[in-house]
Structure of Phosphoribosylaminoimidazole-succinocarboxamide synthase:
Amino acid sequence: MVHQIYAGKAKEMWTTEDEDVLRVVYLDQATALNGKKKDHINDKGKTNNAISTLIFKYFEANGIETHFIKKISDAEELVKKVKIISLEMITRNYSAGHFASRYGVEEGKKFTTPVEEMCLKSDELDDPAINASQAIALGIVTQAQLDTMWAISRKVDQLLTPLFEKADMQLIDFKLEFGTLPNGKIILADEFSPDNCRLWDTKTHHHLDKDVYRKDLGELTPVYQEVLQRLEKVILL
Ligand code: ATP
Ligand code: TYD
């Protein structure tokens, strides 16, 4: 029987007739502060699904293996079921968010080498920061798996930074999630959308991402639709 396996903050995950395949439903919902701030946002689900589909297809076209199979409706896609590795892998090209507040620096400082950070995926613990030796000690990953995940993260950064530049956006930072296939291979999972990255307009430095919601800067969906339109002009598959 087809059933829901996870009701997330931004997506629902459903089984399908094929045990190796999940159906993802993108929700019209935004959350911040680990779910403490939560709102219904019209058309957010279909906009994020469209953005993530475009970017995951671009990854596949450029040799990055992902869980993506196909988009099946406005707000739904099919993905390969993976065992999610409980780490949020963050790459920062410019200071922003927690990096800026934690270290007392202004937002928008460009790093000569991207900063790499990890958080443990745990809503109960508020996604605490974790380093490589801690993650290995906890049995979450091996060093070899971490090496693979960071190599893919760097490839993503090198691929997307010039792509977003072409679309007049700076890729400030982003978060990736990885999972393992039954054969143990690590692939990119979850989504890539303005929910889990920061994008600034190159000229105005206006936020084109979830900071619009986090900081109450205005309506979210028109901003995400602007990102989608800009990407549609530069991703020609
Ligand atoms: P979390 O804090 O765990 O990321 P969330 O509620 O913020 O949860 P959502 O995006 O709403 O996140 O939920 C999607 C869930 O599905 C996440 O837990 C994510 O790790 C998981 N997931 C993503 N892709 C896959 C996949 N291919 N196979 C299995 N699980 C997946
Ligand atoms: P970060 O600055 O650490 O946290 P916050 O967004 O709460 O200030 O986030 C860096 C980037 O990673 C940002 O684009 C948001 C994304 N991210 C997620 O999508 N989920 C997460 O659980 C975390 C910790 C970060």
Q: What stands out?
A: The chain has six helices and 13 strands.
